[in-house]
Amino acid sequence: CHTSGMLTPNGKEYAQKIPREELTHLILKLLQAWKEPLFHFNQHIEHHQQLPDDSLSKAKQISNMVHELKTGVEKVTEKMQSMGIISNSLNGMASSEGTGLSISNEANMMSDSDFIHCFRRDSNKVQSYLKILKCRIMPENSC
Amino acid sequence: DILQWPQISKCRSPEMETFSCFWTAGNFYNLTVPRILQLLYKKSNEEDWKECPDYITSGQNSCYFNASYTSVWTPYCVQLASKNEVYDKKCFSVDEIVLPDPPVHLNWTLLNTSQTGIHGDIQVRWDPPPTADVRKGWITLEYELQYKEVNETKWKELKPRLSTMAPLYSLKTARDYEIRIRSRQRTSEKFGEFSEILYVSFSQIGIGCDHCTEEVEFPWFLVVVFGVCGLAVTVISIMLSKQPRLKMLIFPPVPVPKIKGIDPDLLKKGKLDEVNSILACHDNYKTQLYSDDLWVEFIELDIEDPEEKNRASDTDRLLSEDHLKSHSCLGTKDDDSGRASCCEPDIPETDFSASDTCDATSDSDQFKKATEKEEDLLCLERQENDESLPNLASTDPQHRHRNTQSENSNVWAPFEDSIESPRLSVHTQISNQNSLTSTDFYAQVSDITPAGRVVLSPGQKSKLGRAQREGCTEQNFTMDNTYFCEADVKKCIAVTSHEENEPHAQEQGYNEDGYFTTESLTTTVANLGASTAAPPSSEMPVADYTSIHIVQSPQGLVLNATALPVPDKEFNVSCGYVSTDQLNKIMP
Chain B residue with minimal CA distance to A140? Predict the structure, then answer.
């Protein structure tokens, strides 16, 4: 997977330990990393005549969901920063932009099944991180 | 026996924090020295195989990897090997092998029971597996509930749900049920193990219905309801479709005012020609409805039609025929011709003459006589015809006995009034006018009985005619809507007409809708006296006439003794009659 190089917590304890800013940053980074590859993938499978229309529409739907999720997380991040829950230290996404370019290049070389496998894994990551982040933002939950 | 190699049966993670691998040993033991199987594992980014850290926690032939050894999204490979041989190998990542533990703490509560107590609803609750950290959201679980009756074999399933409670509806209280639940990770497809079975027994809480009958009862209520509906539908369809008699029996038709053969629209549109023609075909209705219409017809036709000869001939014909018929029955004319022209929108006057019968007492006949007389009344003659007068005069006594039904004296009544005396004089005057035509003779209506019969007075014309001949030539009549002002006419009238037109003591005429009959007019005149009878600007007091004070409706007239309030100077004040338009201008 093209996102294998990213250092992400692989366990619940790690996810609980790292600072929230970092967790947020990681989430956004992951979502950003998949924006381009998804776009290319959709273009790629459109020419597939063997695929049923449901798959094509599902792929487009997933791309949209990822984009919306990224937008939502950005908004939540801004809100958190304005409320002082997290600091503004990691605002710059320039580094992720750069890695994003190289990441997308790698993504183009993957096969379709690997692509889907990697995407499934990373989406699972994002879901778990978001759940932990949500738990950590609200202090009443003993996270 | 088949030789079975040791193999890894499965690896699972119950909560995505730890995982375990299980294997089977195979049946090698009997043959050789008991081998020691090892499970080696390796992460994808490592080179060396490591041995299982814990062979005990998960039981025999298992390897347990605790949280420190678990990297969730990291690909692992495990292999089952003895010292030299590798028997099995598996590669996976932890997030793919998540199979949650079964839910715990199942319980049920009664929601409600049916009225009969045969069925009941329950709510089943449970707790998520304790190992899964659902509270922090590290893992999200779905639950599937299955239930069945105790002595059944097949389980019924509910849809997987995220909540830890589920209702079960319409369970039979007489039976016991079994419930089990299993869970899976939301993003996975495989379910974990089933929970322990929960037993549901209604009798435990005292609701069980031991002696309840089976539910296969005949649904009497439904039968009754649908039967009634079907019956109603059938009855309605029958009634509406085919059986007019039945329909009339149940829904008697409400009679609406209607004349057979007459289209109500014709009456509404006011097409009197057609109505008259249709009515002429129906003898019964001639007398009733023709009176006014014929007056209209006669009036309009006579005035509009400048032909003298026809009128003269018609009136002559009418008079002569009438005279003849009164004495000797000429027999019926050609009825066909009469009938033929009857249904055409033609001048009905000819019809009457043609279809005259010998029955002098018939209503139609009388009516015809009366209408002829009306025609005589209303027709204005350009030329004098003294010969016709005695004819008319002779026939007047006969007419006096004739009855006609004229129930509606409408706006034409005053017209008739005005025409009574001055007709002979008028015809000399009118001859100067274009719009007036003339007939040969006139008869004065002296009386209208309450029954609506016109009583004609004889011998009026000669006096009037003689009297008027002198001074009325230069009169200027205002011609409004074919009316001519009686006042102007009255000026030409001899005073002698006064005695002839004595107002009879009449009963009150009809006062329908603001109408005034001639007799009421005369009565009013009588009551008012000679002074008021005369129109204000006229030098000739005529007892039978009075001026119109007001027009209440398009058909109504109110006669007034006082002067006509005419603010508008353009009115000819002497004119006792105003048209509806003029009145509209006057009235607010």
Answer: B136
Q: How far is CA B334 from CA B169, B314, B458, in A?
A: 93, 17, 31
Q: Is the pTM of this model over 0.90?
A: no
pLDDT tens-place string over residues B404-452:
444 344 444 444 444 444 444 444 444 444 444 444 556 667 777 777 6
Q: In what order do the strands lie in the sheet with B38-43?
A: B50-51, B38-43, B75-81, B86-93
Report whether B492 contacts B471 (CB < 8 A).
Answer: yes
pLDDT digit string, tens, across residues A103-113? 556 556 778 88
Flag whether residue B140 sits within 8 Å of chain A, measured between CB atoms: yes
Work out whether strand B479-480 and strand B483-484 pair parallel, antiparallel, or are unpaired: antiparallel
> Strand B198-201's sheet: what is its strand order?
B156-157, B141-149, B176-185, B198-201
Contact A134 B187 (CB under 8 A): no
Instruction: Return the minimum-mean-pLDDT range out of B76-90, B170-184, B453-467.
Output: B453-467
How many alpha carbons fall within 13 Å on the CB side of residue A120?
A: 12
Q: How far apart are CA B66 and CA A40, in angstroms?
A: 39
ipTM of the complex: 0.83
Residue A132: list chain B partners with CB under 8 A. Answer: 136-138
Contacts of B138 in chain A (CB under 8 A): 12, 15, 128, 131-132
Which residues in chain B have their CB less than 8 angstroms from residue A141's CB?
135-136
pLDDT mean by block of 10 residues, chain A; 143 residues: 83 87 89 87 79 82 91 90 76 52 60 86 90 83 67
More confident residue, B471 or B281: B281
Where do the domains of chain B lie, and which CATH numbers do they carry?
Answer: 7-97 (2.60.40.10), 104-205 (2.60.40.10)
